[in-house]
Each structure stands twice: as structure tokens, then as C-alpha cells.
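Table 4 source record.
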Amino acid sequence: MRNSAFWHAKKVIRDLKFLRDMFFHLLTKRAAREKPLIRYSELGSVVPDYARPVCFFCNYDQKDVIRKNVYHYLGELMRAGFDIVFISSNNTVSDTDLKKLSKLCIRMIVRENRGYDFYGWKIGMQAYPSYHAHSALLLANDSVLGPLFSMQHIIAKLENVAADIVAMTDSLHFHPHLQSYFLYCKKSVITSKEFIEFFSKIDVLTFKMAIVRKYEVGFSRTLGRRFKLSALYSLESILNRIHPERPKDWIDATIYLWEPLISEFKFPFLKKNLLIKRGVSIEEISQVLVGSDANYTVDMLTDYIGSP
């Protein structure tokens, strides 16, 4: 393991980058439009059922394509019992895709690609204010590939956790928090003043590090003052069985422990960054999926990796 001085230096550099990004944001904020443009917002053909939880699903693709994996994920969510509000940051979504999405969604929104997912979820709440009438709200995005395994009973599993907000994974990076690619918020949360006030204050930030620290970490810190938070695949439970050679506050289990997460814990997702930034090969991932009896096909991996 690298010595403590190495990790301390990384922390200092990370914090300086964050301060730089926030300073630049404050300098440019006045010149920027406050709200991203809404290019399209229409009802889907699915009729809302308030007895079901609703999922706000954020999507983005550099080539303005709705990938096979996205349809797979949406289909699994629908079969699991979610109503879906689809929020895309693509420049355009084709008429063909809008027709396909309509069969899966209660509403489709296409917005300007500014503000990242937290602002996308905020737009979803504004366009579909009836979200609080549903039994719960799932905040999700397509930064992951999957589900790799069936999610048929995921709602019951989430509801049975003795917590008010349940994520797939958590992290100790910056501050203990739930990772935001999958956040299940129960009824008491989505009707609370804390939740409503948090999203009312979401701003258009342009730097991912600022998004993580102010909104992903901030969500857990703000809501955690009143509500109990939990992760289905908590870092603590993973590190009880696996011992990587780095400090635990520098471990993103979805990146550094992706293989044992899938093979040993049957974790249902695979971070896209493994393919596009970490250089993990499709062949390596395919071997792990086959060995884990995952019901995820290789063609969905190749469909995604074809567009970095």
C-alpha cells in the first residue's frame, strides 16, 4: 500500500481542484442562463399508478442515441413495478425512439445538457409534480450498464430495508454518502420539506467534482440529518470480505472492486467508466458475467463501447 503522505497529497490536490472549479463557477454564473432549455416534454402511453413508485431516469449519449442497455434497464424497471419519467440530455431524440419510450414511460423529457443529473431530476419534479403522490421515488441514471441480474423483487427488497433512503452503494470519499446513480427515497422523504428545499436550491454547476461534493455528498448530509440512510451493498460489508490495498475513503467499490462485487455479491450494475476510462475489456467483463450467471448479453456491451 502506498504511504499516508501519498494519499494526503492526493487529498490536497483534490481539494484545490474543487476550490478552483467553484471559484470559476461563481465568476461565470451571472453570464450563464439559469435554466437549461426544455426541448420536449410529453406524456407517455403508460398511465401513472400512484400505488407504484416512480423512477426519474436521466439519460445522456454523446451521439444522441438511445442504447440497447437503456431500453434493457427501463424494461427491467417497468417489470419490477416502477412508473418511469425519462429525462434525456441528448441534443435530439428520434421519433422512433420517442415512440418506443412512450410504451415504457409516463412522461418523456428532452432537455439541454446542462446541470448534470441532479438538475435533470429537478426538471423531472417540475414537469411531473405528482411524483410525491407515488409510493416512493427512485432517482437513477444510465451511468451504469445493467441490470446484470433480475430486479423483479427489488422494490420489496428496498422497502424492507430499515432506512428512509436506500442506495445500491455508498462511499467515504469526501464524506460518507450514498452514491447517486441509484437512490430510492421512501414516501416520508419525498413529501418532506427537507427534500423539497434541497432540490429547489439545485443550481446549474458545470464541474463534475462540484456536483459530487455539493449535491451527491450534500444530498446525504442534508437528508441524513433527519432520515436514515443505507446501501444494499455497503462499503463496510464489502470490506469485511475483501481487503484492497488503499485507504477505504479512497475506494469506489463500483470501480476498484467491480469484479468481486459482481461474482461474489451479485451486484446488478457495471459502471460505464470501466469500459471507457479504466480500459477494462469486453472479454474480461464477459468472462465475469458468464461465471456469475448474469442474464446480460454481450451485444449490449458492444453496443455501448462502440461509442466512447
